[in-house]
Amino acid sequence: MLGPVILAASRSDKMRRFVSAAPGTKQVVARFIAGETVDQVIPIVQDAVAKGLEVTLDVVGEDITTREQAFAARDAYLELIEHLKDLDLGTKAEMSIKLSMFGQALEGGHELALANVRPVVEAAAAIGTTVTLDAEDHTTLDSMFAIHEELRKDFPQTGCVIQAYLFRTEADARRLAASGSRVRLVKGAYKEPAEVAYQQKAETDKAYVRILRILMEGEGYPMIGSHDPRLISIAQELARQAGRKLDEYEFQMLYGIRSEEHLRLAAEGHRMRVYTAYGTDWYGYFMRRLAEKPANLRFFVRSMVSKG
């Protein structure tokens, strides 16, 4: 039951200051955040690709409050693309974007986020890669899906994320699976009310399997975002039943979590993409990682005690 408490704390400025100042924080953050700058993350990308992995890169910092911050987020991704350009990695290094970081929650936010994300998607396409729009809390999704649909008119490879714990997601999956788009399925990592989302892990897991079946049997490209060994095995079986080849879907896992499993799946011939976050404004992302798994929180607490 700690997960909802941690997710609530992810929105607290007081908790942000406390966690940032805690003596064990830096060690634990380094487990989930690949670096603070693009120069620090590029060698990690190169190392991952050399090992047969692929990556999706996320510049952390979705909790913005000004248009200037939204423009800075856009520019951070454009800088990332400039660095990737010379590496010639194609889709082995794509990008994940939270539209809140691009101004979605500000006044006129839908239009602002679309205007900010379009040049990033254009620049990504110019170097042979693409962008996936991350899902955030349920109040943002209609805007995200509308932006996704608009971008796909010119850049059909643009992906999006759906979350298994939301009641609406099976209907979203049917619509997206029929469209030929790229869809990442995750369980969900935001604090959502019982009116819109399953509250029990078992119910979310059942929904995940139902939705994954829809994606596998559809015309799109499924991206399985999970570290759960049981769900990974089910995904492989659903892919087999749907007649999908190994390059017709992919697995995605977070940087710093189950790294040996990343390599195992890649060695078996699967496309295995590592969600790799970097940047200085790591707090919201970090707290969601703690909320997802009790072991992550225990690791953080042990680090605080050992450094205290």
Structure summary:
With 308 residues, the protein is of the alpha/beta class. Helix content is 52%, strand content 14%. The protein has helices spanning 2-9, 13-21, 25-32, 38-50, 67-85, 109-126, 141-152, 169-177, 201-217, 229-241, 259-267, 283-292, 294-307, and strands at 54-59, 93-97, 131-133, 159-163, 182-186, 221-225, 250-254, 271-278.
Describe the protein's architecture and organization:
The structure is a single chain. This protein is α/β, with parallel strands linked by helices and 308 residues long. Helices cover 52% and strands 14% of the residues. The chain contains 13 helices and eight strands. Strands 1-2-3-4-5-6-7-8 form an eight-stranded parallel barrel, surrounded by seven helices. The longest helix has 19 residues, at 67-85. It catalyses: L-proline + a quinone = (S)-1-pyrroline-5-carboxylate + a quinol + H(+). InterPro entries: FAD-linked_oxidoreductase-like (IPR029041), PRODH_bac_arc (IPR008219), Proline_DH_dom (IPR002872), Proline_oxidase (IPR015659). GO terms for molecular function: nucleotide binding; proline dehydrogenase activity. Its EC number is 1.5.5.2.
Write out key terms for the chains shown.
globular; disordered C terminus; 308 residues; alpha/beta; 13 helices; eight-stranded parallel beta barrel
Beta fraction: 5-15%
Main sheet: strand order:
1-2-3-4-5-6-7-8
Which structural class do the helices and strands define?
alpha/beta
Number of strands: 8
Distance between the termini: 26 Å
Main sheet record: 8 strands, parallel, barrel
Shape: globular
Secondary-structure element pattern, one letter each: HHHHEHEHEHEHEHEHEHEHH
Task: Give the integer mean of the pLDDT values.
Answer: 88
Flag low-confidence runs: 303-308
Contiguous helical run count: 13
Radius of gyration: 18 Å
Q: What is the share of helical residues?
A: 40-55%
Organism: Streptomyces albiflavescens
Pathway: Amino-acid degradation; L-proline degradation into L-glutamate; L-glutamate from L-proline: step 1/2
Cofactor: FAD
GO molecular function: nucleotide binding; proline dehydrogenase activity
